[in-house]
Here is the input.
Amino acid sequence: MTIKFKTAISNVNAGDEVVRGENLKNLIVAKTFTEVIFLILRGVMPTSEEVQMLNAVLVSMIDHGPGVSSALTARVVQSAGNDLHTGVAAGMLALGGNRHGGALGGAAKFFQENFETQDLPGLLKNLKDKKIRVPGYGHKVLAHDNRTDVLFGVAKETGFFGKYSEFANTVHEEINKIASKKLPLNMDGANAAILSDMGFDWRLITGFFLIGRTPGLVAQVYEEMQSGEGIRRLEESEIEYLGS
Amino acid sequence: MTIKFKTAISNVNAGDEVVRGENLKNLIVAKTFTEVIFLILRGVMPTSEEVQMLNAVLVSMIDHGPGVSSALTARVVQSAGNDLHTGVAAGMLALGGNRHGGALGGAAKFFQENFETQDLPGLLKNLKDKKIRVPGYGHKVLAHDNRTDVLFGVAKETGFFGKYSEFANTVHEEINKIASKKLPLNMDGANAAILSDMGFDWRLITGFFLIGRTPGLVAQVYEEMQSGEGIRRLEESEIEYLGS
Amino acid sequence: MTIKFKTAISNVNAGDEVVRGENLKNLIVAKTFTEVIFLILRGVMPTSEEVQMLNAVLVSMIDHGPGVSSALTARVVQSAGNDLHTGVAAGMLALGGNRHGGALGGAAKFFQENFETQDLPGLLKNLKDKKIRVPGYGHKVLAHDNRTDVLFGVAKETGFFGKYSEFANTVHEEINKIASKKLPLNMDGANAAILSDMGFDWRLITGFFLIGRTPGLVAQVYEEMQSGEGIRRLEESEIEYLGS
Amino acid sequence: MTIKFKTAISNVNAGDEVVRGENLKNLIVAKTFTEVIFLILRGVMPTSEEVQMLNAVLVSMIDHGPGVSSALTARVVQSAGNDLHTGVAAGMLALGGNRHGGALGGAAKFFQENFETQDLPGLLKNLKDKKIRVPGYGHKVLAHDNRTDVLFGVAKETGFFGKYSEFANTVHEEINKIASKKLPLNMDGANAAILSDMGFDWRLITGFFLIGRTPGLVAQVYEEMQSGEGIRRLEESEIEYLGS
Here is the structure.
């Protein structure tokens, strides 16, 4: 007998499964999806404050229209004549990229690795000189992102506005002393700080975006299936041929 | 100006997004993830019974151990040296297959297309003769799946044990009159019937499995990343070479 | 010991691998990629005519610009901040869709299942009434696809213009008796007929598109990586919001 | 008019496509797949030596049995009830991981960035101290990989055994002065050095693995489809449940 996987997540015994020590049948009857998401990722049942905070975080991520690269990918792949799950999975490949939802994990990594720095201005100056953007700051059009205010409002109410959220604000101030245009602390940055203050490892934090956005990707792909538009492609006028 | 996508899902106006007519900031503060999942897929806010039922359905799907083909795929892909989202997306490709989580949509299709049949025994006999399995029935080891009892219990309590759930039970009885071994109405079948009774189109129903299982896939891939096991592959003893 | 996979493809014995009965080291030294593609899919070494024909088929598929849904998907996914292989794999998900490269297999299935029909006009009329398009016919702008002439030219030269290619031409004539606009036998249709005449099962034939287009997807994703364009998304002007 | 993509790869003008300055119809009639792969990735037609070398490289990559993580993934995903292209794309996600085929690009990066180092022993000692493995060296069972000899043999014959191949051998010698067990220069390392000597950028080099292995993945997934095995999963005996 070769043991292939060791797992502490769940113990499947046919129809009698235990998830992180809790009987699945009891969870089905008595717990919300958000509570069990917390349980499976953290190993213990959440407090009511943790549930409230996690709901706010996941709801904030649910959809951002058909034009962002994850939804665009998901709809194009479905339009080529694919099943719903294939479109959603392709969208997830885009979503996790480090210029898209993967920025959540990138921002959390930055906060968790640097919050004790003695020389934040020097660190930020060094990154700016190397043209490395700090993830979690900046927005295509907004100079101030008031979704951040909303999320930090819930964080203050529930007790999760802690050292990483404070640090995210400090970084925000320092970045704007040297930035060429005003950069907001955006929603990804706020969520990264809050999830860090909730105690999650940055390596796991991009996973919350995958969980929070999947319903939006399902909705986008289903809408595409119902649209009757046929296969999507660029117009020739959207392509410029270079070379011979 | 070429309009590429028409959408009724969300209206993104920089930091002021509206999802199905509801301001996202209000949703973040006041609604649970499950409520907003329902909203984005259905277009209206759920009743408290719909929330209770949907929580039960999603919780029932959250994980089924590392050995099922979706989790196995997700962990193997991560183990080859990939990011978290790449493993989860690969797992989702397996998950939606029609022999795996895709059976949810297959069962819902069967119920929605056939519940008014005048000759169920004839229909089932015909499928059996063609060796087509009815999705939602059968289990590797269980003769009775008591997760089905738990889910139907919540459905009765919330008023979603309706015509499709009744039909699922009738199919169950009829199938066992002709099956060579006792087939339970399994959890996929129960969820397919309940989601049909909640009013969801079968074309969308596989999407609930994608939403419900993503947290489990995230947990599995994260556990694999932390395991230090290195790349996974079969042993040579697990392969039999045929031919020359 | 549990045997998991039985395979007749290759026998891996550490550094001494045998592919379909041929020692891999000998293949490396003495055979072309096209010859070994044929070998691994067919189980025997090709004749020179088979090599010539397969080269023509694979070359015809290599790229079709950045605007088709597979290349668009591949570039968008890379642009979100992903590795080369992730972009290429996402592009392949689009490519295999039955409205895109998957049409190759669809056309081959149609030819292989129907070439002995006694009533082709009736069959085509029936499909037209049900608004089912025959894959392999039609083009966005072309009334005649002279790539088909080129491919059939090679097929005649090499002896692979056989019963399926004849049938594809017959279907072409019959379809245009009832079509509302002139439909060419397009390149996918020609390749599907030729690969059928070479003896390949339609279930395998979409695989030739995956093989033939992967170099083009690699080129597209690499070009995107070098472009410095950043993340791709639709403009707001390309989206029309419906509903409240 | 918004230009979305600029490309120098191909100029698609309906049925009259130009690839890197060459008319596609001429390529179909007169060139091999390997020649056009080189053309599309490099921008010019290859010499006969380049064709011979590239054939050897691609053939060496074509398959490595069903047990490696890419083929395992591809077969498991298909077995869950998915289309051929979905299985192949999932396999490609595993394949590009940096512990699997992605090691090709990793080795090429190491050679291209370090071949002018003045202190190779110091560099290797430093990596060893940090427990960073040099990609391209080592094998599960082999102390010497004679596929490397075969590939370097073709490289010497065609004139592509150049500075990077020399460097790969030097690194091999130096690594074995400090390694705890004898490490071969493996096939990935040899191919990475040869493709570097052919003038390819390391950022593109993993792409050759995607091209070379796709036929093998197609063969594996097709064999799985024909096998009648049903969905693959681990046995319960292959999982060890930890925790409560």
Summary: The CA atoms of residues 138 and 183 of chain C lie 4 Å apart. Chain C has eleven helices and five strands.
